[in-house]
Amino acid sequence: MTSALKKNITALLPMKANSERVMGKNLRVLGEKPLFYHIGDTLFRAGIFSNLIINTDSKEIGDMACKRYKDWVIIHDRPSKLCGDFVSMNKIIEHDLVICDGEYYFQTHSTNPLLKKDTIIKAVESYFANINQHDSLYSVNKIQSRLFDAEYSPLNHRSGELIRTQDMNPVYEENSNLYVFSKTSFLANDSNRIGTKPLYFQTNKIESVDIDDEDDFIIAEAIFEKLRLNEFKKQT
User: What is the pTM of this model?
Assistant: First the structure.
């Protein structure tokens, strides 16, 4: 383990009982276990987090997490003022940080079940390796496609110039896979997990799958089964 990973880092995994677009998705089974177990298990296997904090309004999620992760998990009961579909994630994080003593935090979502242990470790290492130049880190998708705004105006290319997409200047999309930040940075930037000097961390397409709607769940199931089949073939 590198010196950076010997620091006291807390993992944050906020979850609510109900989802507007996919009902009960955090408990929905993916590959024979509830969705949130996938990222929870991966965070545990990473071996770099002092604790996992789950901020939730669901007693069922809290009970299941405590049974699976024992003393490693800490449940924060979400107050009613922070419940609902229109509460900013930064408000949820602020609630966690106010009652926590730790300085460094890694935040992800239950809807990122394909995120790998090695990617998590690499992201944390990258954060600490660049901490003198950047106050936070977040994951992105690299996009090299022809993009347009609502008025059909090109955003990242010139109309009529059909250069190869691989030769275009890339743009980057925040994919909500992971965030690394400090309490100091969060509070100094008006309670925002992304600071004023963030560092991009690119994740691949498979790990970047984020389950927001039913189509996303179907895609995640298909990828999961394909990866499991490939692993089975390696062992036979």
Answer: 0.91
